[in-house]
Amino acid sequence: MRNDDYSLVDIPSIEAEDTMSTRDATKLAAQASKATQRPFRKVLMMRHGEPLDAAFPGWTRLALLGDKYRPYDLNMPLNIPIRSLVAHIDDAPLSEMGRLTAQMVGRGLRLARLEPTMIISAPELRCVHTAAALIKSLNNKNKAATICIEPGLADWRQWQETPPLWLSPRQLADLGLPVDVQYEPHWSVSSLQSAESVADYGERVAAALHNVFQLTRTRDSGVVLIVGHGATVSSDRMSTVTELELADASVPYCSVRGWHLSDDSSTLMATLDHPIKPIHTSAFTIDS
């Protein structure tokens, strides 16, 4: 196993019981019958996992020494891409807890029979890492699932002081991440405006999501997973910077919300109540 391979530990255990009721099974059968006539699609939106700069705000100053990376906490990944200091500051990778949480969400989707057949990610490394970690917990038939990078889902540009320094799909694939290098995004990186207003940001994300929904009509996409930011998942009103900050902060890392997608792929219909089981833990620090 490589140092950068992370997976849930396999040990002899009692399998989780399938608690689906007869009524639920009947409902699913009816839905499957309809699906033979038209695709029955669901949309899941997920916030990225904990990024390294959230757990360690000064990590670049302490862990990057010249051209050396020296992690000083077990919640820091063993390896990170070789990039400029500014790129590391503006586009941090996931922490180890971020990766593990994303894997737990992947397991939750598998148990809930909501394994995505199409995965779209914002271009930030924390989002791509989240999607890649989640894929590791899917069934074998979906292990080959790839991630489509959509720049239109990027975070609000005014939160960054530099032009986008994201890794390209080819660079991400060269790092061993399951990225679809053939995917043609609807937004180019060069089209993103650094001076966009909050309203412009909301319109951009809405347009990007609409394009993704339309794309599902041309693919066999039963469940679409979109990995983005807190504001992507939040349903709160966002017209000011304060409202955007509150909306982003109100969504925990790796939170998932789900909807049914309308027949014409233009509207999110009824929400999926509790798409996966909750994840509960207690915050702690182990210092020896």
TrEMBL record:
MF-aspect GO terms: phosphatase activity
Entry-linked Pfam families: His_Phos_1
Domain of life: Eukaryota
Residue runs in coiled coils: none
Protein name, entry field: Phosphoglycerate mutase
Species this chain originates from: Plectus sambesii
